[in-house]
Amino acid sequence: MSSPAGNGPTRVRRPALPPVPILLALLAGAVTVYGFEPFGVTGLPIVTLALLFGLWSRATVARDAFWLGFAFGAGLFGAGISWLYVALETFGGMPAPLAFIAMAGLVAFLSLYPAIAGWASARLTEPGSVARSIVAASAFVLAEWLRGYVFTGFPWLTAGYSQLPASPLAGFAPIGGVWLVSLAMVSISVLIVHATGAIETGRWRVVAACTAIAAVVAGAGATIRELEWTTASGPPLAVSLVQGNVAQELKFDEQFRTRTFEIYQSLAAQARGQLIVLPESTFPMFADELPGDVVEGLTSIARQRRGELLFGVFVVDAPASGDDAPRIYNSVVSVGGERTGLYRKRHLVPFGETIPAKPLVGWVMRNLLSIPIGDQARGPAGQPPFTVEGERIAVNICYEDAFGDELREGARDATLLVNVTNDAWYGRSIAARQHNQIAAMRALELGRPMLRSTNTGITSAIGHDGRVIAALPWFTRDILEVSIAGRRGETPYLRFGDAPVLAITCAVLVFALARRVKQR
Q: pLDDT tens for residues 259-283?
């Protein structure tokens, strides 16, 4: 095409993406949240993802697929992690306008992952093709995996979590983790897309084939779910999981310390288990500030039961070489045994427990957020498990349980997993129930029971099959008494981690890229 002035070719301006598909993608993302706890409409994310993949399938240019993916992410994360605003504004002291801007920035950043997945699928394949669906499914799962690792990772609302507790697709978790569950979900989603298209054109054999393949995927998951990958390590252990219900606005108040000591000493004295677990930062102070009679009292209680008591506290070490600041660790201490045990948190929360790019954002963190002890040190790798009555206990703190591949190291040498957390930061939001669902996925992946002691909830005992055995109502002060046997042995995920899913998704994308290059 030539310009009217005859000055050479002109660029053909592509029409802008209509608003309706963008709004549909945005709505689909927001509705997807209802597939996760506390709502638990398990099949809903498969349908909403089918809508997203259907929109991607029709995209004629990569730019349109990018914005469709971005809109889906904006809906998903805007609705699904809105509770972070509570931590920033209500308890973090950040001015409301800045908290809103910070949340918008985070949601926009997380939305880039499905956006890039959509862009890649449209860039590498033709609209409406089977290849488009296969690449889109693989790119979506790979983007989820990257979201769990880039900049320390934020794998919250990974699609596979929605399949707990009852979906047959959860059976894939012991093989390839939550990522393989996601891959099974999106496989069914793209089958729905092609079956729907086939119905519109009367291609009933295609409909039958898509239905049969989806049934095989679901049936395989259900069959695998019934397999026992691990065996009991011994008789059941009596465990007491303590929920102190200390209000977040009081937790770090020095005037409330004496009352905190009284609450937990009283609850520990009432506990009947050989293993007594108190929540994260039970005593929100440095270990050397703890009164000796409090530590002695808790130690005595554990020894009376011939067991161990775990409590949370902050431990201080000397500065690292070349640094002036002391190293502060969010820690769990075990007392009652022959020697005192110590676990120091490894995976820290960005902007909550550690300050990324400190020279650039350190001033903002110190002056606009009131988060106590917000610049902590990372614990070392290879920390040994605690031992109680022959059971070996691997501890993780707060949202460390969102990183399955990192928990594999401790789980290999352990028979029980213990998570301590304080989700009071997020008020009466959906965060605590989402977190408990994530912990359940770790139990299923690793074939180990997960015992959770939290400040305000959800305190729970989760079996090695990912099903919640018992739980306390949130925002109550109580003790969950359970008897549970540890497990030994390895699931495929414990042995191989994320590698199988990475191999599948990367192979698909590499093949699609090579095919595209050859076509050109």
A: 999 999 999 999 999 999 999 999 9
The percentage of the chain sitting over the pLDDT mark of 70, rounded to a whole number, equals 94
The catalytic position among 89, 144, 280, 353 is: 280
Q: Tell me, yes or no, if the pTM score tops 0.90.
A: yes
- Is 345 a catalytic site residue? yes
What digits encode the pLDDT tens for the residues 222-243?
999 999 999 999 999 999 999 9
Nearest to 239 by CA among 486, 481, 459: 481
- Quick check: is 518 catalytic? no
**And the tokens for 358?**
């400190």
Choosing from 210, 251, 353, 398, which is the catalytic residue?
A: 398
| Residues 6 or more apart in contact with residue 240 via CB below 8 angstroms | 271, 272, 273, 275, 276, 277, 479, 480, 481
Instruction: Report H helices in 430-470.
Output: 431-446
Cα(468)–Cα(239) distance, rounded to whole angstroms?
15
Contact indicator for 182, 156 with CB cutoff of 8 Å:
no
- In the annotation, is 280 catalytic? yes
Q: Which helix (H) or strand (E) holds 30?
A: helix 19-32
Element (H, E) at 96: helix 96-124
